Amino acid sequence: MDRRSFLLTPPALAISAAGLPSNLLAAPAAIHSHTTLLPRRGTGPRIVVAGGGWGGMTAARFLRQHIPEADVVLLERNPTFWSGPMSNKWLIDIVNTDFVNRDMLSPANRYGYTLINTTVNGIEREKKLVLTTHGTIDYDYLILSGGIRDAYEAWFGNDKYAAEYTRRHFPNAYIPNAEMFALKRKFRDFKGGTVVMTLPPPPHRCPPSPYERACLIAWHFKTNNIPGKIIILDPKPKIAPIGEGYRAAFQELYPDIITHVPNAGVKEVDPFNKRIKTAAGDFDFDHAILMPPHQAADIVWYAGLIGKRPDGKPTGWADIHPRFFTARDDDDVYVVGDSMGTISDQFGHYPKSAHVAHAIGKIVAKNIAERVAGKEVVPVLPDNLCYMMVNADPQEEISVVFEYEVDSTGRVLQTQIDMDVRSPDLVAKDFAWIKSRFDDFL
Amino acid sequence: MTFSDMPAKRFKTRRRLLEATALGVGIALATPALRAQQTPAHLRRADPAEIQAIVDAFLGGTQPVTEGLKLDMPVLGDNPASVPVKAVLEVPISRDVYCKELILIAEGNPRPLACRFEFTSLAGTTEVAVRMRLIETQSVQALARMSDGRVLAARRHITVTAGGCGM
Amino acid sequence: MSTPRIWISSDTPQAGDTVRVRVLVEHRMESGMRVGPDGATIARNIISRFECKFDDDLLFVWQPETAISQNPYLEFTFVARQSGELNMRWMDDAGAVIEGKKTLTVSG
User: Fold this and answer.
1) Nearest Cα to A48, choosing from A81, A75, A76, A77?
2) A69, A169, A371, B91: which has the fewest Cβ within 10 Å?
3) Is C71 on the interface with A (CB under 8 A)?
4) How high is the mean pLDDT of chain C?
């Protein structure tokens, strides 16, 4: 018996197969990473979507809708879906866990795509193969919608122990969902002291959200008479976006709690002694939400699709066609959502928001359908909008809208409109917005 | 024949198709409801004579005073579509001595007169703030005519870059 | 049309207090300088007049021009003198009108 068949056949059966009753179910074959995860089905294109977040789940749903014969497979390492939007409200119990944490099996069944709970650990584009911890899967088209990774190496180099210590003790909960409960629990149990929050340098996931988080945690302190202070260490020269709206909220609602420190790029982090050095000074803390720089998810690196700067160093983000979102080096691979790189020299990246990921997921599904049908591929622009709650009693929100158009040279141009007078009517709009999006893919 | 059996040259056609479509795109394809407010590149800042004419019309021969009016603006505007500009009167005001008229001028815009305020003695206003869309780095002027005839002036420079969110 | 967003520093000020108001309405503020896909210039339609009254008495008029951003924002201070209503009215080039108000209870 050769080694291969030995591995595939459980020892018990191999030894005593002849003696087993025929009505006994065969024990499952051992699975390892070189087995095929899923054989092909049907004659339509096989489209693998790596990453089941706002972008990936939307793409999977609309791929099935536009290409009924397609074999669409969604790979997701988390067993359930976790929404970044609304998660700050969840931290202070304005919405409950059922609102932000959702089942993924029902939408997969409803929309007819295959969902596999597995982790991608390699991509071999020349073979059009995705490698996962449970087996390999081949594709005709691949969508990388894996979001972001936390680049702790920027702070700790190769010291993975320090990075993991920092993640465990001072989680930032920007990547579903390992840190969410730890973060919430920490603030529920917080009795007082100084909290520092480090913001990543742009571009990063959901630019206005750290300020919203500061507002809502400050509201929690204020309402529950917890003697806490929040120091926002911001590498940017000022609060952005919706700077005026946040500035007014900090000054008028939380003057004794929130301090915004601009130009405070992180220089050194000592999680063990709870000290941080920045370009704007050194800070000791009792607790912290430490956000390291963000980069495209690991899977983009595995695929070899990270862009390069003029000096040859990686940009950290996927190098993509700005109108079609295909990888520059491989137009059978699409990148959807936060992992996307530069779109325009006027504004850089699309804001890394769930709204954009959802919009691009829909656009890419349509574009792939056009390609499969041999039709002209029509480039479509996304839009973006973000609602941010700055006060929880009364509930008041601010918002920002981004619009895009193309100039005569094909360059994408952005207009940003801040809605920074906080008001209660934006709360209803916020919930209506997320309901309409969730109805699209959950 | 399954999809994966299709000859490789079909994908090359796709690549050319993508590129051709990309080059052919020269007009906005955003959904009709969403059209951004971009001022076309061919529109340039107004010439200095036009700005001087606006200023002279406001001054009406009065010599402006460069104290008593403050312009509050960021030095760096990260969103050219919405730059906060605040004008603050620092002289004492009353029902009898108050600001009657105030204008803001965006010197670098194609239409430099940004807005005009006309106050009554009832208002008691000492501060106004607006948001301007500025097409390029430029100076902003504020001119305030008081009820006693004085004209107060302030001027500040702002550097404008796009993409505060994603650069 | 849009409902104005109105924020006020206090709706129960003392007489003589300075009150701060921030208002925002949603409006395209079409500048008249943009060109559509057919090459024709898109007609200008901006909010060009804003009136602020206290009850029936005019406090001030604001006349925005094309340099004022989309979704025009305005912040101003005024002196509270007696109880009544702060009445605000926005008018655009096409004749559309948006109204908003805030009731003040002034003591002292």
Assistant:
1) A75
2) A69
3) yes
4) 94
